[in-house]
Amino acid sequence: MGRVFLVELEGRTYKCKFCKTNLALAENVVSRGFHCRRGKAYLFSNVVNVTAGPIEERMMLSGLHTVTDVYCVCCGQIVGWKYETAHEQSQKYKEGKFVLERGRIIDGLDSEFYIDTRPSSSDAEEA
Asked: What is the pTM of this model?
């Protein structure tokens, strides 16, 4: 395996949750209303520092799409997918765009998207 060259990004970025590699700029977010098997996701017009898996046909909530999973180039974790082809006319806007799963990315401020909402003990509960 050869040397990995990373693209550095300036501005507000989204990074791989696992290794903190830059993946996308906040200004490249097209939509924050996407969903995946693991929860919510963002649609991006461009991402960097990813590698693509094999192309496959996948039935999604919005219909049949030709997609490829995308992996962080540094740690190899799957971070989302790329829409290669949308088979329905109403979904053509997704072609060439990327979906990054919110549970697998963090914002450039190193804060995770998910907040722990589990109840915790307090002094009042111990009395």
From this structure: 0.81
